[in-house]
Amino acid sequence: MPAPAVRPLLTRRARHRLAADAALLAVTAAFAVPLAWLVLSSFDTEATLRVKVPGSPSLDNFSAVLTDEITFTPMLNSLLLCGSATALTVACAALAAYPLSRYRSRFSRPYLLTILFSTCLPITAIMVPVYALFVRVNLIDTLYGTALFLATAQLPFAIWLMKNFMDGIPRVLEEAAWTDGASWFQALWRVILPLMGPGVTVVTIYTFAIMWGNFFVPFLLLLSPDQLPASVSIFTFFGNYGAIAFGQLAAFSILYSTPVVLLYVLISRRLGGGFALGGAVKG
Amino acid sequence: MSRAAATGAYGTAGSVARPRRRARALLRWSPLAPATILLLLFLAGPIGYCVYIAFTDMQLTGQESTSFVGLANFRRAFGDPAFLNAVVLTLVFTLVSSILGQNTLGLALAALMRRASRPVRTLTGAVVLTAWVLPEIVAGFLLYTFFERRGTLNAILDQLHLPSQNWLFTLPILAVSFANVWRGTAFSMLIYSAALAEIPQEVTESAEVDGASGRQRLWHITLPMIRRSIGTNLMLNTLQTLSVFGLIWAMTRGGPGSRSQTLPVFMYDQAFLKSLIGYGTAVALLLLVVGALFSVVYLRLLREEV
């Protein structure tokens, strides 16, 4: 009599699924409330601090913030700052990963361990000496100085990721290039990097997204209002004129967040759900 | 196969060819130079400078020169109630948000998602990951509006006829801790989803057949099998949480008074608002040392795994 034995098992499984669904939906609802505020308020010209469905939804908040001063200049600053820093990080990381992945020597392991060690250091803690140093060498309030620091702060993790991706490319392929007399640079540029396209994309997107959201570094190192990136300029919504236009704040937050959200979607499509990071984290 | 090209610079040492070999080794390792120079100038440099400033009385303004004061900054820190307050708040913040919150909730979500139906799983993943992906400052504002006196949490409590209160005033450290849970849980969820997916199906199934209850399976099978992921995750969460600044700054600026002033906020306050660079850096150095200790433990965990 197999049937009676199977049926309760199935219903138990179904019951478990239902319980799991209910629990997840409850947690999801709690997580979704602040996000709902963001979306609903951005369409509400009379937005308050509470989640509420806008009486007459409109795009007025967006058109109010889409000006040079509020949106375009800070976003352009963010783009310049993070774009140049990302380019520098990725270029340096690709170069550095090559010998670490290809050659063996007694200092490559300590080098890698140092890199891994510094990925874990709380960068927040060194911002005070960085500020003091930047004042002393006149890099304070310069976009390129800030970009150099952002690039360096992200470099250890980028090297680590890049090296792991590069290890996945079989060596045989460039040995052929070597016997043909190619230099290391040609082997890296012509053979390896084209093969690890997805890996380079992930490192680039991840680096850019992290920098785009970074608040503390530009907050400390950039002073002139016309140079501030979006992560810092968002504070001008507060304080300046007394009342806060919450609808506009929400609209600007959405505009500022959209690029990173899209980029993350792009990586997860490419690598199945953020597991590039899981892999990196596990070494 | 020309292995010779690949075996590295310190292979068999032929005494005649040594200078040439050394030149070739230099050329070979030259791609490391740009990254190394940047890391030395902008990371190792500031860390070294940090160690130096922490032993001086450097100030931003109102002082002609900086002099060496030995351990005075550290002695001052350990006698300073404001510093001790920041240490306690940092411990609370880390314990509540990272160890209890992100870690446990992340594991629970990952485990539930294995049982849940596909649409619910997708929805939960999308919402929790969005909270993680949003820039820190945006997350800070969103949770500010949630916990504010006129905010959504109180609106919900009113609806349920529960007493509302000014959360950012009465329990600021818990409010920012919950904010950090909201923002950081996705990371643990990803790590634990990957770890749980690696547990062989047969192991759990045979335990189920043997009549082990859900709790027994969790305690005796699941947790021991993912203990490395737990270690890694706790370590990384804690390190992340130790350096949270923007989130707290956007929500409370460390206030009211100093009741949500964790170490990074305290450091900023001393160094920039009170202009005491030397003292602020000493605090930063302590934070850095704690971070370094966690890093070393993390490296050990990884080494076991390799």
TrEMBL record, chain A:
Source organism of this protein record: Streptomyces rimosus subsp. rimosus
The keyword Transmembrane helix is assigned to this record: yes
CDD domains: TM_PBP2 (cd06261)
Name this polypeptide is given: Trehalose transport system permease protein SugB
InterPro entries found in the cross-reference section: BP-dep_ABC_trans_perm, MetI-like, MetI-like_sf
Residue span, ABC transmembrane type-1 domain: 75-267
Membrane-spanning parts: 18-40, 78-98, 110-131, 143-162, 200-223, 243-267
Similarity remark: Belongs to the binding-protein-dependent transport system permease family.
Subcellular location: Cell membrane
Alphabetic keyword roster: Cell membrane, Membrane, Transmembrane, Transmembrane helix, Transport
Membrane topology recorded in Swiss-Prot or TrEMBL: Multi-pass membrane protein
Gene this protein is translated from: sugB2
Classification via PANTHER family: INNER MEMBRANE ABC TRANSPORTER PERMEASE PROTEIN YCJP, MALTOSE TRANSPORT SYSTEM PERMEASE-RELATED
Plastid in keyword set: no
TrEMBL record, chain B:
Entry's family note: Belongs to the binding-protein-dependent transport system permease family.
Species name: Streptomyces rimosus subsp. rimosus (strain ATCC 10970 / DSM 40260 / JCM 4667 / NRRL 2234)
GO biological process per UniProt: transmembrane transport
Cellular location(s): Cell membrane
Keyword set includes Transport: yes
Xref: Pfam families: BPD_transp_1
Record keywords, A-Z: Cell membrane, Membrane, Transmembrane, Transmembrane helix, Transport
Chief place where the protein resides: membrane
Protein name: Sugar ABC transporter permease
